[in-house]
Design goal:
Helix content is about 50%, strand content about 15%. It is α+β, with helices and mostly antiparallel strands. The protein folds into two domains: about 110 residues, no CATH class; about 90 residues, Structural maintenance of chromosome 1. Chain E (Arc Repressor Mutant, subunit A, Orthogonal Bundle), CATH 1.10.10.580. A three-stranded antiparallel β-sheet has the order 5-7-6. A two-stranded antiparallel sheet has the order 1-2. It has a two-stranded antiparallel sheet with strand order 3-4. The longest helix is centred in the middle third of the chain and has 33 residues. The two termini are about 50 Å apart. This is Segregation and condensation protein A. It comes from Candidatus Falkowbacteria bacterium CG1_02_41_21.
C-alpha cells in the first residue's frame, strides 16, 4: 500500500480519508496537489501499472478533492455535485469489479477446465459452446443467495395440508433412482423443463434429490441446463 507524505500527514491515502471523515484532521491543511504529484511520479517510475490500484486512488482522491472544495467554498456546493461524486465512485467501483471478473476468467481459461459442445440453438444454425467441467461459483456468492435459489426450487412444490390417518408409510428415493428417471426422459426428449422432472414429487426431499441428479448428469456430460434469469424456468437439454 503506497504511503504519502505532506507537511501535516504521512501514511496511506485510506487513512487520510478516514481521519478527515471523522473530523480528526482538517482537510484545508492537506496539500492535495502534492499527493497527486507523488502518485504521478510513482506511476511514471512503475514498471507495471495496476489498473485496480489506480481506480482505488481515483476514488479516494476524488472524494478528498470534493470535501476540500466544500470546505473552502461552501456556498458553491449543491446536491447535483453530490450526485456527480457518487456516480463517479460507482463507475470506478464497477470498473474494479469488471477487472476482477476478467482476471478470474483468465485464470479459469488458463486451467483449461472446460469442454466444447455443438448446439444448433433456436435459429437452427450450428454454433460451438464451451461448458465448465466443474462448479466454479462467483467469489461474491453468499449463503443468502444460495438459500434464495434453493427456496425457489422448493417453491415448485405446493404445500398441501392433509390429515393423515392410520399408518404412515415412509417412501425414500435415492439419487441413483432419479438419475435413471432423468436418463429415461432423455431417451424420449432432447429438451424438457425441471418442473416436468419434479411434477410428481411427493415431498421436498424428492425435489432436492432431483436437482442433485440433474447436477450429477451435467457433470457426467449427459445433459446441460440453462436459465434465462433468476427464478426463471430451468431448461434441461440432452447432450450428444
Amino acid at each position: 500500500m503506497m504511503e504519502f507524505t505532506t507537511a501535516k500527514f504521512s501514511g496511506p491515502l485510506e487513512l487520510l480519508l478516514s481521519l478527515i471523515e471523522k473530523e480528526e484532521m482538517d482537510i484545508t491543511e492537506i496539500a492535495l496537489a502534492k499527493i497527486a504529484d507523488e502518485y504521478i511520479a510513482y506511476l511514471k517510475n512503475s514498471v507495471h501499472i495496476d489498473p485496480e490500484q489506480v481506480a482505488d486512488f481515483l476514488v479516494i482522491a476524488a472524494k478528498l478533492l470534493y470535501i476540500k472544495s466544500k470546505a473552502l467554498l461552501p456556498y458553491l456546493s449543491s446536491p447535483e455535485e453530490d450526485e456527480e461524486i457518487e456516480e463517479l465512485e460507482q463507475q470506478l467501483r464497477m470498473y474494479k469489479e469488471f477487472l476482477e471478473a476478467a482476471r478470474g476468467l483468465e485464470k479459469m481459461l488458463a486451467r483449461k477446465k472446460f469442454s466444447f459442445i455443438r448446439d444448433l440453438g433456436k435459429s437452427g444454425k450450428r454454433r460451438q459452446l464451451f461448458v465448465w467441467q466443474k462448479f466454479s461459483p462467483p467469489k461474491n456468492l453468499t449463503k443468502e443467495m444460495l438459500r434464495e435459489h434453493f427456496n425457489y426450487i422448493l417453491g415448485f412444490l405446493t404445500a398441501e395440508q392433509q390429515e393423515l390417518k392410520g399408518e404412515v408409510i415412509e417412501y425414500k428415493i435415492s439419487i441413483e433412482e432419479k438419475i435413471s428417471f432423468i436418463q429415461r426422459k432423455l431417451l424420449d426428449k432432447i429438451s424438457f423443463t425441471f418442473s416436468q422432472v419434479i411434477k410428481e414429487a411427493g415431498n421436498r426431499t424428492e425435489i432436492i434429490v432431483s436437482f442433485l441428479a440433474v447436477l450429477e448428469l451435467a457433470k457426467q456430460r449427459e445433459l446441460e441446463f440453462e436459465q434465462d434469469g433468476l427464478f426463471s424456468e430451468i431448461i434441461i437439454n440432452k447432450l450428444n
